[in-house]
Amino acid sequence: MPHRDLAKLCDQYGPLVYFRLGSVDAITTNDPDIICDILRQQDNVFDSRPHTLAAEHLAYGAGDVALAPMGPKWKRLRRICMEHLLTTKRLESFATHRAHEAQHLVRNVWEVSQRGDVVNLRQVLGGFSMNNVTRMLFGKQYLGADSAAQEEATEFLHITHEMFRLLGMIYVGDYLPFWRWIDPNGFEKRMREVEKRIDDFHTKIIEEHRKRSRDECGVEMDFVDVLLGLPGEDGKPHMDDIEIKALIQDMIAAATDTSAVTNEWAMAEVIKHPRVLKKVQQELDNIVGPDRMVMESDLANLNYLRCIVRETFRMHPAGPFLIPHESTRPTEINGYHIPEKTRVFINTHGLGRNSKIWDNVDEFRPERHLLADESRVEISHGADFKILPFSAGKRKCPGAPLGVTLVLMALARLFHCFDWCQPEEHIEIDTNEVYRIAGSNWDPAGDPTFDMSGLTDVTKHSDVLSSSRRVRTL
Ligand code: HEM
């Protein structure tokens, strides 16, 4: 597993390790001081992204926010995200949808448990994240009773799944040009196929929205409506369709799997630790009580739940590395020369398991995050850079407040409404990480790629199936 192997190199050689990937200079670190140097003191040097095949094919030629190199294009699109899409006001306007989805999640689990079946958490949590994101982006729910056309929903889920896989791979062709030329396993061809299908899907969504805005006045504005109403570059009356598509693409890729995977890990760890489950249920009983559901306004007061999420991010960050950064000019770190265009792998998994800064690194113990003065526990990084779930500096996650809300809300509802246990006494939930050589599912020959699941997660554990019983009225 690359994140574990690179962390081992840091243990062996020191907190900053230089290596080469083909012809590319690369560094890696799991050390809070060096990470702080890179993301804070030298943010202006390390704020770019490397150009990869995935960015070329799956992010409109790196024409998005997440994979774009530093430059005017990134600045403009990032500003659009911050000033038009992810503002507090805009996010508040979707609060009713989020409440609906939280209720839908509880009802889903309730129905399964009433039948006496086990709950497939991966499925219900994936549905919760996906529906929240698609409602916000397109004004559509893709999974569940009110869902969009079945065929469209199936196609959407299928291509997003493929996109997640492809975006997350370290592909040898990015480092060895001859490999790309040969493309022995048709990997790049596969990217182009997905690119085409995704583009067709986005084209359809944009056309529907254009038609709808002509047909219906007073329809609630989703992200696509907002983007269609914004002016373009250089005095153009509208944004290019490609820019709109790239932004939609980013939101799907960055928002969906990250929160679903975090929730899945948190549930798995808490179910494995009944003491923690009991403690969080006591907190929910004290703060929310038995007569109503958890609301977003409660989330700031659920300090132990916040510790659970922080501990989950420490042990299982949504991605084992940040999205790779790239230096834009030569510089020095700790007295070592770092050339221009060096690729930077910040190992957030290694940071959370770094025994120089954490004790008993493999123990899930939310209490370690409680503050002596009992003040509110913050989920994103602190000044000490000891955990970094949403990164820091210019490329930090612009969706962090929404991500935190989605994660806290799903967990709060599930712990408040249900008791949880493993399906059968003899089945142990396995929270060890699994690393897949991607391609083995695709092609018996196997691609020489590693599935990092991109921003999402390398650390997919086995499906967590848990039985539940209701303790609250719906
Ligand atoms: C639990 C949920 C989430 C987690 C853990 C998470 C984490 C991250 C991380 C680690 C990065 C990489 C930062 C870097 O490379 O330095 C990132 C980038 C990004 N995230 Fe999130 N994210 C979450 C949810 C969201 C949501 C809900 C959105 C938007 C709706 C979003 C949009 C983005 C975008 C656009 C970027 C690229 C930023 C850039 O390169 O300028 N994320 N996120």
UniProtKB/TrEMBL annotation:
Residues that, per the record, bind heme: 397
CDD domains cross-referenced by the UniProt entry: CYP71_clan
Any one Gene Ontology molecular-function term assigned to this protein's record: monooxygenase activity
Keyword terms: Heme, Iron, Metal-binding, Monooxygenase, Oxidoreductase
Cellular component terms per the entry's GO annotation: membrane
Domain of life, per lineage: Eukaryota
Pfam families tied to this protein: p450
Cofactor(s) listed in the protein's UniProt record: heme
Subcellular location: Membrane
Membrane topology: Single-pass membrane protein
Family under the similarity heading: Belongs to the cytochrome P450 family.
Name of the protein: Cytochrome P450 703A2
Species this protein is from: Dorcoceras hygrometricum
Lineage: Eukaryota, Viridiplantae, Streptophyta, Embryophyta, Tracheophyta
